[in-house]
Hints:
Elements: E1 10-13, E2 18-22, E3 36-37, E4 59-61, E5 73-78, E6 84-85, E7 93-98, H1 106-121, E8 125-129, H2 135-138, E9 141-143, H3 169-179, E10 183-188, H4 190-205, E11 211-216, H5 232-251, E12 256-262, H6 269-278, E13 283-285, H7 299-310, E14 312-318, H8 347-361, E15 367-371, H9 374-378, H10 384-402, E16 408-413, E17 416-421, H11 422-426, H12 437-446, H13 454-462
Parallel strand pairs: 2-5, 7-8, 7-10, 10-11, 11-16, 12-14, 12-15, 13-14
Antiparallel strand pairs: 1-2, 3-6, 4-5, 5-17, 8-9, 16-17
Helix pairs in contact: 1-10, 3-4, 5-6
Binding site for Mg(2+): 190
Main location: cytoplasm
Active site: 220 (proton acceptor)
Amino acid sequence: xxxxxxxxxxxxxxxxxxxxxxxxxxxxxxxxxxxxxxxxxxxxxxxxxxxxxxxxxxxxxxxxxxxxxxxxxxxxxxxxxxxxxxxxxxxxxxxxxxxxxxxxxxxxxxxxxxxxxxxxxxxxxxxxxxxxxxxxxxxxxxxxxxxxxxxxxxxxxxxxxxxxxxxxxxxxxxxxxxxxxxxxxxxxxxxxxxxxxxxxxxxxxxxxxxxxxxxxxxxxxxxxxxxxxxxxxxxxxxxxxxxxxxxxxxxxxxxxxxxxxxxxxxxxxxxxxxxxxxxxxxxxxxxxxxxxxxxxxxxxxxxxxxxxxxxxxxxxxxxxxxxxxxxxxxxxxxxxxxxxxxxxxxxxxxxxxxxxxxxxxxxxxxxxxxxxxxxxxxxxxxxxxxxxxxxxxxxxxxxxxxxxxxxxxxxxxxxxxxxxxxxxxxxxxxxxxxxxxxxxxxxxxxxxxxxxxxxxxxxxxxxxxxxxxxxxxxxxxxxxxxxxxxxxxx
Length: 490
């Protein structure tokens, strides 16, 4: 599929250590493209707005907490409508595709891209690609209109269907070219955005007037740079139902243990925030924080202590936690799914059996109930806050594509929507930082052991990682690709 990270980043330096990590524009490789007045200036819906358009020089800073002598640091181009657009309304032929796993809010994003193109810019030709990337050359398309998508935000899943893998860059771009498509909206996680970056590079190589816009999607919230991913709030909210059920079950019987497994292949954000929101959880286990079962300070000892104190307890574990403990029996070790994700064994089922076996040997009766709400959470419609967020994402993507920007992902950075280069979105995965205050808040809330020895803590502190995001994180990292005298981020 190629390596999209090989793309030269478009950097603009300024005074006092200012660096703009800009996104590509169609005029970078099609310099003679004509531009047109933005039709929004005649749109009645925008007549009450004091300022129709975003200033061309507006940028969004990545690092919001600074000292008085700090350099200005890395910025991204602010999202929003521009005075000039590079597509005429009747010229636009847009398509939308959803890839990867399900996530609450997919249909809302689809709806708002369609309605935004239609009502704000007068676009009438919009296609839905059926079945993910392979749908570009293997399946039929769906004609999308505001009437067709009117109620889809009330449903879970995606009306366009989805799939993992199936990416053939040449065939996809051939299909885009053959159909006369000139705006491509790609909704998906890091693997999908990596594919979008390669599609953009092939489009640029062919010198096609096609804007490629990515909308980042992952229920795990592990996409870097942006504040959070859509569907995350809904996932945390729905996880409360499972945790509450586990708490009721555990509290209704002697030595009851409620065990809930939540999503989080590599990052424990859902598990951590669901735990903090619930206040009923006694122990939270995530991939970023190793734990052990046997011996002093281990999980078994803590379970026994908590049962003796309270008579019941609730454990919440992320799907990617504890994989090292069961690696010997992991038949799928090293194997991947079609999206390149490592196949994991059911750690919830495994740890349930281990806990039962341990206390059976100790002749201590327990009653353990295991709940796995994973696919129930993924498949529900998004809640109000995510619906609003999806609207902003969709409209920002539409404004960017109409203004001629391409090869970008859209998302909020410190509360302001921005256009972010594909390179930054796909270069790493965002993870919970266990030396951050947010994890300390969780440990304080649950009163659980950290399961870390002093050496583990020392090693964790050495790692150059951003703070855990959402409430007070920065989601920034050292930009090693910059020049040595470039004081962007410390």
